[in-house]
Design goal:
With 281 residues, the chain is α/β, with parallel strands linked by helices. It has a single domain (8-275), classed as Rossmann fold (3-Layer(aba) Sandwich), CATH 3.40.50. Helix content is 44%, strand content 12%. It has helices at 17-28, 40-50, 62-75, 102-117, 119-124, 136-140, 156-178, 206-210, 212-217, 221-224, 226-233, 262-276; strands at residues 8-11, 32-37, 53-56, 81-84, 128-132, 184-189, 245-247, 250-251. Strands 3-2-1-4-5-6-7-8 form an 8-stranded mixed beta sheet, with helices on both faces. α1 packs across α11, α4 packs across α12 (262-276) and α7 packs across α12 (262-276). The radius of gyration is 17 Å and the shape is globular.
């Protein structure tokens, strides 16, 4: 593949794991990478490695997402790619200072808010928005718009699977609303990757990811980042389809039944906009 024209690429959750691996690969390819992470030390270290700008934001605070949007809007005349990669499976049920279950907020509401606040710039840039989702959407997810926090049936896996399902539906609706204005959107499952995934959770997957066996059978962060790198470098229509959800490099054939519900995608968008206080557009 010919070297693509350099792009300004913002990656959240880029202080570790596949986000950091993608940042390295895209910087090596000559793009202007912007590293966003929760840990000041880790974020600065990755940014220093690749010669990138960096910003610190904790998506457990919506104020951080709002501040990040202002900083990015002021710093860059265009944003070609926004990779909403921050997220993960979290711990016991609690509420953030904003009043939401943390898995919902970190994986869906904060990225939705960030994307919404940057939408005018993304449209002007004819940008691509990438969501790091998961096959966990199919395995564990169930979306109830009347109980997004899972107050009545919470488990870490249900909350995580539902949040990843919300990533897919957000992608579908972002494409429907704005693709004819030049915006593209895609979501993907990176596979089982040897990262700090589940490190802060009570999930049964936590010891797997931390074990020697897990590190042997799981993919490297570099391999897990390949799809993100692919979507970030090539326009929709050339090598991938806008609005789609990908697994193993292809449009997924098996998805959660709710992932195909266009009306649910629309209603989730409207409900999310109401919860974070932005216009539904």
């Amino acid at each position: 593949m010919d070297n693509p024209a350099p792009r300004t690429i913002v990656i959240t959750g880029a202080s570790d794991g596949i986000g950091a691996a993608a940042a390295r690969a895209l910087a090596d390819a000559g793009h202007r990478v912007v590293v966003v992470g929760r840990s000041p030390e880790k974020t600065a270290r990755v940014a220093g490695e690749v010669g990138a700008d960096h910003f610190v934001a904790d998506f457990a605070r919506l104020a951080d997402a709002r501040r990040l949007a202002r900083q990015l809007d002021e710093a860059y005349p265009r944003i070609d790619v926004l990779a909403n990669n921050a997220g993960g499976i979290l711990g016991v049920r609690t509420k953030t200072e904003d009043g939401f279950e943390p898995t919902l907020q970190v994986n869906h509401l904060a990225p939705f808010l960030l994307t919404s606040l940057l939408l005018d710039k993304l449209l002007a840039s004819r940008a691509t928005v990438i969501q790091t989702s998961s096959a966990g959407a199919r395995l564990f997810g169930h979306l109830d718009l009347d109980d997004l926090d899972h107050d009545h049936d919470f488990t870490p896996h249900l909350a995580y699977g539902t949040a990843k399902l919300e990533n897919i539906l957000f992608t579908t609706e972002l494409h429907r609303r704005f693709h004819d204005q030049g915006l593209s959107a895609v979501s993907f499952h990176p596979g089982g990757v040897a990262t700090n995934f589940a490190a802060e959770s009570t999930s049964f997957m936590r010891p797997v990811y931390r074990s020697r066996i897990g590190k042997l059978v799981l993919a490297t962060p570099e391999r897990g980042a390949r799809q993100l790198v692919r979507f970030a470098q090539t326009p929709a229509g050339e090598d991938w389809e806008s609005g789609a959800y990908y697994e193993r490099g292809r449009v997924a054939r098996r998805v959660h039944p709710q992932a195909r519900d266009a009306d649910l995608a629309r209603r989730l968008w409207d409900r999310s906009a109401e919860l974070v206080g932005v216009p539904a557009r």
